[in-house]
Amino acid sequence: MAKALRRSRIKIWCDVIFALLVRHVGSKFDDKFGMAWAVIEPLLFILMLSFLRGRMGGEESHGMPVFVFIMFGMLMLRAFTDVLSDAASALRKNKSLFAFRQVQPISSVIASAIFNVIIDIFVFSLILLFMYLMKIEFQISDMLTILLLYAQLIMMGISFGLLFGIASTFVRELDKIRSLITRPLMFISCVFFSLQDIPEELWPYFTWNPLLHCIELSRQAAYPNFGAVGVDYSYVSIITICVLFLALACYRLTWKEVLSR
Amino acid sequence: MIYLDNVSKWYSTKKGEQHIFSSITFEIPTDHNIALLGSNGAGKSTLFRMLAGSEYPNKGQIKTDATISWPVALSTGIHPKMTGRENTRFIARVNGVQDLEEYEGRVQNFAELGRKYDLPVQSYSSGMRSRLAFSCCMGIDFDLYLIDEALSVGDKKFKRKAKRALLDKSRTANILMVSHEIDEIRLFCDSAIVIDNGELTFYNDLEEAIMVYEGE
Asked: pLDDT band at residue A24, thresholds of 50, 70 and 90?
């Protein structure tokens, strides 16, 4: 007979997250495109946008090729919104799995985030390969800063997603509001334009958005002569720590309630 | 032993808080096969889900050293878009089964799904789904199995097989069972817990419990 092992807590967590991850992959890509679509779709999207933008504003944008400029904006934006929406829906979607005592609501959130990170890595590598083949000149002078920005972006996405997920188990309508809120992010986060292109007196309406800071700073990190202004690395970190704390605190207070709803 | 230590459970509904249990302290012995008796809405399923760790009490806690199965009710944790095999593997991973392949094979044999085992569960009939869920649970060794009307599904042949498997289990491990079929309860259980008005009472003698339950 299969003996159920007595495992340490950390081992149970790892096993459960791995199982959820495998399940996530299996259920998300069951059509013919399969996993490839997750990678091809953003690539096509960036291509289309940089083509349009290139038409409008020439081949260069603040010393960066337009493609690279838009790539940073799009990848960061997508990473954030995808992780956010997946984390938010993970609580409801995996509800039937919480019948297993080993599966805690937050493990499904973590699994969905890990899944998104894996996809992002694939997308990024593929785009680098694409740029290499298309002979688009690019440089990345400070990869470490970009990775740190990305990591904080993911943490923010998980935290906001978790907050929305918890809130929407109590008030279902919040799910609709979430998609309403995340849609305009594309236009207010400097995906197509730089903050430098916006008149300075309008900055206060934009710079509250940590996503904008992440995008501009990542461009700056790749091209030191980009000259990002009005953005601040420590602002990103402070926001990340605050929402992460808030999300974990809310989770800790409500997870039992989330289970019985 | 399973200790219920000052357990309270309520659900908040539109009509205010609905109390199922308030401050119950109780010991459920794990050396009996126990039937859980009570009228509809008495809190059988809630107690079940709390024992399984699918839900938690609002106050107090449940302590035990025994390994307890998940509630083998309908098709808990079975994903309709994944195949029977993938579902089996998921359950095995979550529960920490060591030998995945061997467990997979055993579930396949027991559930008698044939080729359908490698097709998505959404193409199964409801009977086949519960056969899969039941087989997955029976394939793992627990100290206590929580059986929630699980025997009421499947065709005659499978029912007989399930009964036999469960009888074997009731000798080596223990069973906690919810059923409205008194015959079934007599077959598997030797004692009972009656839930009435949020109070639990343990009866060592099953017949006595049935008398109390039916006399209500």
From this structure: confident
Report whether A20 contacts A94 (CB < 8 A).
Answer: yes
Q: Does position A165 have pLDDT exceeding 90, yes or no?
A: yes
Distance (Å, whole) CA A91 – CA A108: 7
Cβ neighbours of A26 in B, within 8 Å:
79, 81-82, 86
Q: What is the pLDDT of residue A226?
A: 86
β-sheet bridge partners, residue B68: B144
Closest CA to B142 of A12, A124, A2, A243: A2
A60 vs A234: which has the higher pLDDT: A234
Interchain pair B140, A15: CB under 8 A:
no
CB contact under 8 A, A5 and B76: no
- CA A105, CA A93: separation in Å to the nearest integer? 10
- Axis crossing angle, helix A233-259 with helix A105-133, rounded to the nearest 10: 140
A99 touches chain B (CB under 8 A): yes
pLDDT tens sequence across A176-233: 888 888 888 888 888 888 888 888 888 888 889 999 999 999 999 999 888 888 889 9
Distance CA(B200)–CA(B214), nearest Å, equals 16
Is B8 an 8 Å CB contact of chain A? Answer: no
Torsion of CA A254, A255, A259, B4, to 10 degrees: -90
